[in-house]
Amino acid sequence: MIAVALVLAGIAALVHVYIFVMESLTWTSAKTRAVFGTSAEEAEATKELAYNQGFYNLFLAIVTAVGIVLVAVGSDAAGTALVFAGAGSMAAAAAVLLVSSPDKRGAALKQGVIPLLAVLAMLVGSLA
């Protein structure tokens, strides 16, 4: 079950790296604006906010990736803690998005289900 958790956590980390790219690097592009449903004016007005938010997503991905690597090299306690912290924070942030903006349910599910499954699989694997 730990292997399943690590694969899911890795996928979640990659999704959050992609979100970082969109929010911090391509926020005002037509493609990214279409994903987030923003106009050119809205994207320009929120560029600094999105840039900062993108780095939060990158840092969560890094924490999760470091946890995966640590588990892979045998530092199970530290690695598991980091996977719980990173993927758990991703799932929690998605829950906040879902509750605060129900109209963004699709985005919340896209960014939150996989890390939640990773956390649950890691919990089951850790208890076994």
TrEMBL record:
| Transmembrane region(s) | 55-74, 81-101, 107-127
User: Which InterPro entries does the UniProt entry name for this protein?
Assistant: DUF1304
Short name of one Pfam family for this protein? DUF1304
What are the entry keywords?
Answer: Membrane, Transmembrane, Transmembrane helix
Q: Can you name this protein?
A: DUF1304 domain-containing protein
List the source organism. Nocardioides turkmenicus
